[in-house]
Amino acid sequence: MNRTLSLMAIGGMLFLNSCNSGNVTQDDEWVDLFDGETLNGWKTVAGDAVYTVEDSMIIGTTVRNTGNTFLITEEEYGDFILELDAKIEGDHNNSGIQTRSHIDEEANEGKGRVYGRQVEIDPTERSWTGGIYDEARRNWLYPLELNLPAKAAFNKEAFNHFRIECIGNEMKTWINDVPVSYVIDTIDNTGFIGLQVHGIGNDGEEGKKVYFKNIKIQTKDLSPRNLENGVYVVNLQPNTLSAYEEEEGYSLLFDGNSHEGWVGAHKDSFPDKGWAIANGELKVLGNDGGESTNGGDIVTQEQFSAFDLSFEFKLTPGANSGLKYFVTLSEQNKGSAIGLEYQVLDDEEHPDAKMGREGNRTLASLYDLIKADKQARFTKPIGEWNNGRVVVYPDNKVEHYLNGVKVLEYNRGSEDFRKLVAISKFKEFTNFGEAEQGHILLQDHGDDVSFRSIKIKRL
Hints:
The chain is mainly beta and 459 residues long. A hairpin with a 4-residue loop joins β25 (386-392) and β26 (397-402). The chain contains 3 helices and 29 strands. It has 2 domains: 18-218, Sandwich (Jelly Rolls), CATH 2.60.120.560; 238-458, Exo-inulinase, domain 1 (Jelly Rolls, Sandwich), CATH 2.60.120.
């Protein structure tokens, strides 16, 4: 063999060895998490569902009378980009991909309980595939009510391509290259990756399968994919905006430290009593439940017409408050200023929940007009932070959300809206709720209620 051929052969051997070392793919930025033949590097925890390897795929199969079962990596990961293909059988099955997750080894009668952020695989009519669920801990972080167009990205009974970015405190997902979810979190910088077979109880379909293949990861020199405009961000870092949110046109109405931008309703300055700012919270102080009898309501100095407004609120037991919009301060009425109100209320203990008509004074309702259609599982307990959202479109369509799930919608100024006003406590106010623009208001109803992370985008 001549010297040139010998060098070529040695070079070829080195190339092959570098490709095989550590399961590195031909693109040396990616590492295979699954070798296509065995479950080396993985282990089954928490349940009794079965995982097998066939035709270069990991196949998880549902089993009755067992809880959620996970195939998890033995290694933990911090920052990474994960890509894989997944397919799920049936219209009522469920699965997911755990990221930076953990296990409580002693829970579940010693079988362990996995907890952490999960990317949903959901073939049901709900179609929340790619949304982010916090398994066994905080429930839904990013339901696909927040990104309706992305619900169409998932293809049933077919392999779908998942891309998951966990970089710093940000987590983003794509399904078949369609951007789905974006969460900025405050916990879990590292953890394992896992594949789920969801428990089916006694009545579910046994033997339904979930397929995973082409599982690869990057952990070095990461390049986040650019996110197109219009993706709503669930930002769990209090009173902050990401660069993306700022580019999208969001601004903070409360900076976490001062009352800048707010004044008392019908006043030129911020109330000198009845409100407190501490620990990043804007808090109305309790005063025996009286409506606007202590510090009084506060309003933004700016006025808004079409907008996307999000805010977090924390109730104390039996508390009542509200966020109002299109507040003009023109009515000169006594008590709380007039406006359309996103009700903030302890439904269990405050009597207002039983008043009005058909529950239209309960949490997240359009106060005294339209009841919020909400499920208990999407409502955080009293003393925990809930996320409210009000979207007013330029065509006067309005939506209320609670913790990422839409609970009502209506059209300002429509015939149906005016009929509701005519039988409400607001019937005496001409053109109630139909102003072209107005202030945002936080209500003093004499109870301890805290607000933070108030952000708005003009539409």
